[in-house]
Amino acid sequence: MAEKRFYITTPIFYPNAKLHMGHAYTTVISDILARHHRLLGEKTHFLTGSDENTQKMVDAAGKEGKEPLVFLDGIVENFKTLYQNLDISYDQFIRTTDQKIHWPGAVLLWENIKASGDLYEKEYEGLYCTGHEAFLTPKDFVDGKCPDHGTAPEMVREKNYFFKLSKYTDILKEKIESDELRIIPQTRKKEILSFISEGLEDISFSRLRRKDWPSGLGIGVPGDDSQVMYVWCDALSNYATAVGYGRDETMFKTWWPADVHVIGKDILRFHAAIWPAILLSAGLPLPKSLLVHGFITSGGKKMSKSLGNVIDPLKLIEEYGSEAVRYFLSKLSTFEDGDLTPEAIKETYNADLANGLGNLVSRIMKMTTDHKVDLSPEQKAVSYQDVAVGNLLKNFNIAGELSEIWTEIASIDEKIQKDEPFKTIKTEPERARKDLYAILERLFNVALRLEPYMPETSKRIIEAIKTNKKPENLFPRKD
Ligand code: MSP
Fold first, then answer.
1. Distance 17 CA to ligand 1 centre (A)
2. 267-296 pLDDT per residue, tens
3. Residue extents of the structural domains in the chain
């Protein structure tokens, strides 16, 4: 049988500012899925990257008095530092200014859509929001400003190439309805189906090349260098170019189609309508699924500098460690919005990690090492694959699976209270040893199941059990 493969992607992030908790969230849940599939023995490719051919990046570089391409290198380093500190096991980081990896495929895709007769030129006038990197309609603005970005749009009147998105309305509906392109959760599937049912409009797929853009930024439209590809057209294609489209057919055949694109709810339309339409037009298979997560708020509000409720992921890691931050993030509802405040984070840390898992491990390991209760070699050979049967991660339910692990932790705790091996060890040592063995076996399974979520913690517990030694305090209480 052919080896099973799994190809997973995060969105590529805009490098005009540093990454915030929302970006960390997408990346951590993608990492958990990537690790899960690797542990199942599948050959896994985990892609992330940065979306660089944008006006807002040029603006941000200008504010710092830097050349855009120099500015980009610095920001990308910051992204990678965050990933390293969060223990993100990505296999590839794609940059859309990469002329070797990304550009040939972006150009080939353009040529293929053109060959299908899906591109045409049109004089266009519209309101462009640089924050969204998209044209919006007048009714999207409040008091003349974009409510999401607080900025006024730019009135653009120019000749562009248009993509015949409208042509794909029916076929997209059918592919999504039938789950050939699976959209998770159901609420997002319904949302996009109702959007598509209203009829899709053709979209502008290029922009006039800007004078202030250095060469090396913006992919020229094949055959018309006065135009560059519209940033979303060039960005979406990263999922294909990264794995060889336009430069390495064998590699591309190996990995494409992607198993899942992990995205936030704000970029659903781009991924569930425009991207599959591009692929259909170019005659390429569609990704198998989209996992659409909600937004992180703080105190019920969008994190923003003016509200002063921004939580910096790097600072949070400094305070709690990457394992704990991975826990806070993966505990948030996978499919709906979730909230994080400094107070709630501390409470979760103390309740779930210090008193919950940490305390349980040290109690059990104290008893089992003191009394030399050791798992059998067969039990120690149990692997992730044995315990992952029926795992909720199959359905991308990251928070659901984590919650089941914590239910098991609570239940092991109750079992200790009930059996009281710490007392019976004196009066009925044989029974106590049997009870301890059963408890240790359950803790071992918990440690295995935890691996994709908290790889370091999992390793330390497994190591302690395998060597019958008490580990250091995993999560010291914070007061
Ligand atoms: N560059 C585009 C994506 C192109 S993918 C071909 C983009 N970049 S982004 O940096 O603005 O956002 C990247 C991801 O972060 C999106 O999936 C978005 O949903 C997610 N988040 C941004 N803020 C968020 C929260 N507050 N909470 C959770 N995720 C959010 O869009």
1. 12
2. 999 999 999 999 999 999 999 999 999 999
3. 5-293, 341-467
Whole-angstrom Cα distance, residue 458 to residue 259? 26
94, β-bridge pairs: 49
* Domain 341-467 class in CATH: mainly alpha
Sign of the CA dihedral running 452, 456, 462, 466 = positive
Cα dihedral: 330, 334, 339, 342 (round 10): 0
Residue the block writes with tokens 């023995």: 41
Instruction: Taking residues 298-303, report their average pLDDT.
Output: 87
Q: 1: pLDDT confidence band, cut at 50, 70 and 90?
A: low
Structure tokens at 338: 């979730």
The answer to whether residue 428 scores a pLDDT higher than 90 is: yes
The DSSP code for 473 is P
From 10, 26, 56, 133, the mutation candidate for ligand 1 (largest count of ligand atoms within 8 A of CB) is 26
**Regarding the domain with residue range 5-293, which homologous superfamily does it belong to in the CATH classification?**
HUPs (3.40.50.620)
CA of 11 to the centre of ligand 1 (A): 7
Q: What are the tens digits of pLDDT across the range 203-257?
A: 999 999 999 899 999 999 999 999 999 999 999 999 999 999 999 999 999 999 9
C-alpha 433 chain-centroid distance: 44
**CA-to-CA dists, residue 130 to 70, 265, 270, 272, angstroms:** 21, 19, 16, 22
Q: State yes or no: pLDDT of 2 exceeds 80.
A: no
